[in-house]
């Protein structure tokens, strides 16, 4: 019996709605596979918790999460709580404490009707962005001096360690080799004369160990342009924390929007739990209206299953998502459908179950 213990942090806004549908998918798989079981423990952390308790999670929250195989996060952020608090005291705290240094963002066009780009097909937009997830521009290092005075100075320091840079680039080379795809590095070495020059040097150094991997290197401004005009040139991409955050939102824009965007925060060595999440945010304007698109949350379930070594089920979930996209009757309004969140989830489970019987 293969058993996985999952911590649920539904979070804010539409988070609870979409996580509920992802959990239903896992429960359906459990019924379809007699050798696979899941257990779930929910934690009420997020912005509402902060407004009541003055903190985004319990004081011993990290210790409570350590025992789980994975964390399934819905969304973080809500009016009344500053974004730098909600982000840093929950999401980034979990990422850093559990050393989830690999962020995996698939940028894959599921159906040509979803892209605003003319004449692009599924073969043209199919890449995996590997984003450094533990340091870089989001390290939180810096200072604010003489606050409120004319002489005020703000310092925000990017942190690029040899260890952190080496391991994310090496992970990307390994993935490119494993999947027999090209590898592209995105940096800004012409302007950031310390951090990005160092990044470029490490990319070139490690590349000598992977002569079988075809590589490219682009400045982030040029890469952002090519994501839109020529996305087919990208297969596996590796980049820093900030640049990865930006270019993957461009990727979402060319593949159907944030309602289809998913991300995995991975600790590859599995010493700590990894975290899986849709990346569309909390969308408080539509929370509670049944309009939230659960597809991204369900796609993150596919990523979780892959991480567990259940690639057959991970692929089955992804294949079912692709089938669902063609049925506008069972899509939410952001994809020009009229279905409610729960209706999309119910139809998904029906399709998945039917395919496996």
Automatic annotation (TrEMBL):
The keyword NAD applies. It comes from Lentibacillus salicampi. Coiled coil: none annotated. One of its GO terms (molecular function) is NAD binding. It is an enzyme of class 1 (oxidoreductase). The keyword rRNA processing does not apply. The lineage of its organism: Bacteria, Bacillati, Bacillota, Bacilli, Bacillales. Its cofactor is Mn(2+); Mg(2+). It catalyses: (R)-malate + NAD(+) = pyruvate + CO2 + NADH. Keywords: Manganese, Metal-binding, NAD, Oxidoreductase. Its EC number is 1.1.1.83. Residues 5-348 form the Isopropylmalate dehydrogenase-like domain. This is D-malate dehydrogenase (decarboxylating). Belongs to the isocitrate and isopropylmalate dehydrogenases family.
